[in-house]
Each structure stands twice: as structure tokens, then as C-alpha cells.
Amino acid sequence: MSDYVSVKNLIKKYGELCAVDNLSFSVNTKEIFGLLGPNGAGKSTTLSVITTLSDFDKGEIIIQGMDIRKDKMKIKQVIGMVPQDIAVYEHLNALENVKFFASLYGMRGKELINSSKEALEFVGLADKMNMRPKQMSGGMRRRLNIACGIAHAPNLIVMDEPTVGVDAQSRELILHSIKTLRDRGATVIYTSHYMQEVEEICDRIAIVDKGHMVACGTKAELVSLVTDVQSVYIESRIPNSFRFEEFKKKQQLMPDVKAITLEENTFRIDVSIEQNSITKIIEQFIGMGLPIININTEVPNLDTLFLTLTGHDLR
């Protein structure tokens, strides 16, 4: 994949406060890139700089091959911004809101009307075109906020906490819409405090803390930074004749098995992540006449990864 966004050694200060401190990362074309960090980590400042809303002190930002300092006006045309704070006009209805924001990018006439209607349909508000924001639920307002940011068909879409305060149904619709935008060819930079969302939709994740890059990669790559072990839990019906110590010795002959414990009817077997040995373990159970009632694996989730890598919780 080629880089669509390249950020190198970015520094942004507010007086004596260094909000972004020598931050570097790249975003691939047609991927959803998650930017994860607590309040004050520098996420919103970084997004503000990338979307040309704020200047920066040092560094280099290249978007679609264009230098953000030299080609700011051209870059503005390829970016869509969905801010954390809902930015719609209460005195305009849904269609009028979307048309207004799309018109800022030079859309006019039938193209403006058709694109605005398509954006509303895309976020599930096709039947709410004449409704004003004050008549809408929180989830509907969030979806309108997204429609306003994508109606001009931007190649790069920047989303800052787009699901804050919405109901579960609207959240699922929004997440599905974001994945659809990626599948249609858009590149998405996404921030959220909801770890489950980031795990569900992001191709790669950057963990930022105190303006610094802590780690960046796929979830599997981030997991490899903190552990090389996954736990396999197998529930079975254990006969009275079963001898755990004999079973344990046989399992530990496998080089990638690290530890085995048994609690009631559930085995926990810690194995190397790199060696996919679950099939071999299942074969051993079958060979010893141990029926498998349930099986699942466990690796660190993003909450655990974040705590391990930064030393504190996300919030």
C-alpha cells in the first residue's frame, strides 16, 4: 500500500505547552487508521493540523503527494472533516445543512442537490431531509454531522469521536458507514474513546500519549509488543479416571505450550501466538477421549495494551 498521508516530526506548541511533540506516522491509501489516546494526548491538535485548520511549528505533512504548507487550498478540497462537536445549523433542515457544507467545496446546481441527497441516504436520513436538527435524536444529529462532512466525496475523511453519546443502533449504522466509505476507496483517520470500535473497524492503530507516538501497527503487531502468549480455554467433561499430571506432561512436550492449568472442567493452555497450535491441542484432546464442550482464545484487548504501553488507562 502507498502512503496517502505522511506526517514527519510534527511539533505544535501553544505557548510553553508542547501539544504534539515530534510525532511521525503514515496512513495508507484506503485504510481506516485509528488514532488512540487520552484527553490531552494531542489527537485533536494533530487532526486540526492535518485538516489545515491549525498551523504547526515544525515538521512535514504530505497528503496525496501535496505539501500542506505549499498546497493548502488544494488539500482542503480532498479532505472531509467530521468534528467531535456537532457542527450543523439549527435553522436549516437536514438537506439545507448538507447543501451548505457541500457548496463550500464548489458544488453547484444539480450536482450539489444530488450529492447532498446521496449523503443523507448514505447515513440513513433520506426520509428526514426536511427535518431540522432540533427535532432529531442525538444519533440522527451525529449522522447528519457525517453527511455534511462527506457530501463532496472527499478522498480523505477525518473523524473525531463521531459516535459520542449515540444509541447502540446509531453507533452500528455509523461504524458500518465508515467501513463502507473505506471499501468505496476513501482513506479514513478515526479517533474514539471506545476501544471496541477501534478494534472493530481500524486496519491499523496509533497509540499517542502526551504528544508522543507510543506504538503503531495492526492489533496483532501491538499485541506482540507486550506478549508472545495467548490463552486457550477448553471446557470438557472429565472422566473419573483422568490424570491431570500425565495429561500436562504430554501437552508440555509441544514446544509452543508454555503453561497448563485446570479449574473445575475448564483447561487453560498458554501457547505461543506465533505458533498456531490450537489444532494440535484439539487432536490431543480427541486422542485422549476428552470431549470438547466449548473452546475460546484470549489475547490482550486494546484496554490492556493501552495500559501496558502507557502505564495508565485511556480515560
Residue share in helices? 25-40%
Overall tally of domains: 2
CATH class of the largest domain: Alpha Beta
Structural class, please? alpha/beta
Strand content: 25-35%
The helix count comes to 11
Distance between the termini: 33 Å
Shape designation: elongated
**What is the helix/strand order?**
EEEHEEHEHHHEHEHEEHEHEEHEH
Q: Using only CA atoms, what is the Rg? A: 24 Å
Count of strand segments? 14
- The neighbouring-strand order within the major sheet is 6-7-8-3-9-10
Low-confidence stretches: none
Provide an overview of this structure:
The chain contains eleven helices and 14 strands. By secondary structure, it is an alpha/beta fold. It folds into two domains: 3-223, 3-Layer(aba) Sandwich (Rossmann fold), CATH 3.40.50.300; 228-298, Alpha-Beta Plaits, CATH 3.30.70. The strands form three sheets. The protein has a six-stranded mixed beta sheet with strand order 6-7-8-3-9-10, sandwiched between helices. Strands 2-1-4-5 form a four-stranded antiparallel beta sheet, with helices on one face. Strand 7 (156-160), helix 6 and strand 8 (187-191) form a beta-alpha-beta unit. The longest helix is centred in the middle third of the chain and has 16 residues, at 168-183.
